[in-house]
Amino acid sequence: MSSLSPQNLNQGLLDFIDASPTPFHAVANIKASLDAAGYQSLDEKHSWGTLAAGGYYVTRNDSSIIAFNLPDTNLAESGFCMVGAHTDSPCLKVKPQPGTVKHSFWQLGVEVYGGALLNPWFDRDLSMAGRVSFVDAKGQLSHALVNFKKPVATIPSLAIHLDREVNQNRSINPQLHLPPIVLQTEEGDKPDLRALLEQQLRSEPGELAVGKVLDYEICFYDTQPSALVGLNEDFISAARLDNLLSCYISLQALLAGTKDKANLVVFTDHEEVGSVSTSGAQGTFLPSVLQRLAPDNESFQRMIQQSLLISADNAHGIHPNYADRHDAQHGPILNKGPVIKTNANQRYATNSETSARFRQLCELADVPVQDFVVRTDMACGSTIGPLTASLIGVQTLDIGVPTFAMHSIRELAGSQDTVHLYNALKQFFN
User: Fold this and answer.
1) Domain 91-222 CATH assignment equals 2.30.250.10
2) Average pLDDT, the chain
3) Predicted TM-score of the model (pTM)
4) Share of the chain above pLDDT 90, in %
5) CA triplet 427, 428, 430: central angle to 5 degrees?
6) Is 72 exposed, middle or buried (0-12, 13-18, 19+ CB in 10 A)?
7) CB count in 10 Å sphere of residue 300
8) CA 161 to chain centre
C-alpha cells in the first residue's frame, strides 16, 4: 500500500482520536481499518489450524488487539518485527453505584483511572462513553459500545473568591471534588444511570434489542475536538495522545508495509494501571497468540529469538518553562524525531544492541533520532517494553515521540514527529 501524505496522516490521527474516547472504541476503529485492508478476524475460542499466508487480527476483551502479517516462510528462521503500544489513557471512570443528588444537582461518582493530571479536568465540556452489558430481547447477555458524544457533564471549579490561595496551593480530593454534575433535578428524585444507558443504547447505530442494563464500563472524556495548533500548525493538541498516537501510527505503518514479511502490532489495555490483567501486557495475550503460530515449543523459542519488539510510547519533551526538570543532555525537542528511551534500572527495555538497530533503520529512513534519560534524582516511569521483554524473552527497545502535558486531559505533540515515527516504523516493517 502506498504511503500516506503528512497531511492525511495527521488528519487521520485527529479523526481516530476523536472517534476513540475509550479503549473499546479504539479497538473497534482499528478493526474497521483492518477489515477494509482485507485482514481476517480470528477468535481465541476457535481452532485456528494451520493458517495460510495473509493478514490476521485477534482481539481480547474488546480493548486489546493484535494484528499480523503471516508470510509463506518459516517463522523460526525469520521471527517477527513487532511494535507494541497501549489503548488506554488516564481518565475518570464511573463507579458501579454512582448517582447522588446534592442541593438539586445530580452527580456521578468517579474513580481516577491511572496517573491523571487532575486540574485540567475542571471546567471542561465532558461526555461519556464505554461498553455496556445488557440482556437483549431474547434473554441473552449482550455487550455494546455507547458514546453520548455531546457534552453531558462538567466539573466546575470553586470560585477564587472562596479560595484566595488557589493559585498558590490547590489540592484536589478526588472523592469530594471530582464527581461531575450531570443535571439539575428536584430533591427526592433519583435519576437512574442504567436507565439512561439503556436509552442511549437504543439510539446507537445497529438497532439493538435492548432489555435490562446489567453493568457497564463508562468513562468521562473531553468533547473538544483534536486540532493542529500554532501559527504554522507545528503541534497536535488532543486528548489521549498517550498512547493512541503510537497505536494509529503503528497501524498505518503496518498497512503500508510489505505483506510478505512477518510483521505484527500489539495494542494492549491497562498499561496506565500496571498492565496486570487478561488484556494487559503482563497477561497472556501476546504469548498465547505467538505460541499458536509456532508448531512446537522449540520453533516458538527460535521465533522469539529472531524477533524484535519496538515499544512505542510517548516521551517527555523538554518544556521551555520547566527545562530544569530534564537532564540537559537528554531533553527531547518536539518535531525533532522519535526518542530512544533508556534507563539503567530497566524501567525501559532498551539496550545498546536494540538502540543501535533502531538508529540504523532511522538512518535508512532519513529520520532524526533523539535520546531521553530521566534526571538521576527523579523517578522514572515505565512502559509495556520491560514487561513484554521479561514475559516472552524478546529483544526490545523503548521509543516514543516527545510530548508536553502527558496524562493531562489534553496533551501536545509535534505534527512533524508523527511523520518521523511513521517513516521509521514503515522502514522497520519493510
Assistant:
1) yes
2) 95
3) 0.96
4) 86
5) 65
6) exposed
7) 19
8) 39
pLDDT attached to residue 132 = 96
Measured between its terminal Cα atoms, the distance across the chain in Å is: 12
Residues with Cβ within 8 Å of residue 192, at least 6 apart in sequence:
99
Burial 199-234 (b: 16+ CB within 10 A, else e): ebbeeeeeebebbebeebbbbbbbbbebebeeeeee
CA distance 358 to 392: 20
Computed on alpha carbons and rounded to an integer, the radius of gyration of the chain in Å comes to 22
Q: Cβ contacts of residue 188 below 8 Å, gap of 6+?
A: none
- pLDDT, one tens digit per residue, over 388-412 is 999 999 999 999 999 999 999 999 9
Q: Which three cell numbers stand for residue 28?
A: 473497534
CA 315, CA 337: separation in Å to the nearest integer?
Answer: 11
Element (H, E) at 389: helix 384-392
C-alpha cell at 178: 471530582
For residue 2, what pLDDT is reported? 58
In Å, how far are 28, 280, 300, 359, 397 from 64, measured between CA atoms? 10, 8, 22, 29, 21
Cell numbers that stand for 321 in this block: 518553562
> Structurally, what CATH architecture does the domain formed by 6-89+239-429 represent?
3-Layer(aba) Sandwich (3.40)
- Residues spanned by CATH 2.30.250.10 within the chain? 91-222
Q: Which amino acid is at 146?
A: V
Q: For residue 29, what are the CA distances in angstroms to 24, 34, 45, 67, 412?
A: 9, 9, 22, 13, 22
Other Cβ atoms within 10 Å of 356 Cβ, number:
12
* Pairing mode, strands 54-60 and 40-42: parallel
Query: Which ranges in the chain are annotated with CATH 3.40.630.10?
Result: 6-89+239-429
Q: How far is residue 332's CA from residue 324's CA, in Å, rounded to a whole number?
A: 13
- The single residue listed with the C-alpha cell 446507537 is 204
